[in-house]
């Protein structure tokens, strides 16, 4: 029963990444190499963030919300944006369109994040003797992170790769990218500052990911229309 629970949680956590790759044109255009490169860039970015967090943040004796510490975390979190910039603009890719490139990069980015932050807790916790909903919620949180990562990659693609975008949309693109990039700090405030329980935080992440995906899709579509 415990092994069955682990496999269910693992499929919920990592399965959508494989489904997304297979069900979209990414598999037809063989963008797996691009996703792997993006995942490696994410691991390097995570290492830099870990060094910065260990250097500049102090260990808190309690789990209360510290605005100064959370502000530092948010600033350090923008290292992800720098890593995503490198993945989108500096890596060599196959001859694929901008549409497929940002999806492949976002998919690899999200998969590496799930492996790094959720595989070990699943292996240790989901195989325990007692059933708990926490690991199912972690799987749902991984799905929200997948959508947010692809949305951030789409917004980054508009910011850094598309030159002829409407000037009226530029502030909206940057504002949306800032919101997605600071989502870890936002959820940390909800959990520690407002005392939200984990299911409520995951529900917020799922809702926000769908909203940001819709907005990113609309912005990307608007920027692809020929200017009159």
Automatic annotation (TrEMBL):
Recorded family membership: Belongs to the TMEM147 family.
Keywords of this entry: Cell membrane, Endoplasmic reticulum, Membrane, Transmembrane, Transmembrane helix
Organism: Populus euphratica
Transmembrane parts of this sequence: 39-59, 71-92, 168-190, 202-220
Taxonomy, superkingdom: Eukaryota
Assigned GO CC terms: endoplasmic reticulum membrane; plasma membrane
UniProt xrefs under InterPro entries: TMEM147
Keyword match Transmembrane helix: yes
Bilayer topology annotation: Multi-pass membrane protein
Protein name as it appears in the record: BOS complex subunit TMEM147
Compartment annotation: Cell membrane; Endoplasmic reticulum membrane
Pfam families, sorted: DUF2053
């Amino acid at each position: 029963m415990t092994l069955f629970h682990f496999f269910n949680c693992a499929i919920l956590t990592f399965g959508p990444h494989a489904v997304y790759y297979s069900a979209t044109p990414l598999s037809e255009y063989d963008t797996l190499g691009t996703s792997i490169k993006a995942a490696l860039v994410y691991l390097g970015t995570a290492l830099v963030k870990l060094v910065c967090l260990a250097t500049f943040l102090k260990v808190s004796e309690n789990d209360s919300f510290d605005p100064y510490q959370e502000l530092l975390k948010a600033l350090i979190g923008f290292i992800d944006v720098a890593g995503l910039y490198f993945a989108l603009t500096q890596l060599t890719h196959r001859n694929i369109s901008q549409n497929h490139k940002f999806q492949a990069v976002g998919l690899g980015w999200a998969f590496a994040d799930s492996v790094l932050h959720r595989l070990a807790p699943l292996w240790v916790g989901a195989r325990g003797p007692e059933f708990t909903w926490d690991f199912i919620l972690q799987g749902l949180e991984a799905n929200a992170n997948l959508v947010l990562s692809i949305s951030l990659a789409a917004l980054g693609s508009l910011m850094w790769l598309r030159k002829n975008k409407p000037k009226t949309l530029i502030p909206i693109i940057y504002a949306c990218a800032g919101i997605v990039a600071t989502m870890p700090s936002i959820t940390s405030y909800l959990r520690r500052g407002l005392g939200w329980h984990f299911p409520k935080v995951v529900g917020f992440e799922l809702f926000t990911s769908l909203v940001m995906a819709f907005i990113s899709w609309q912005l990307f579509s608007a920027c692809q229309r020929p200017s009159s």
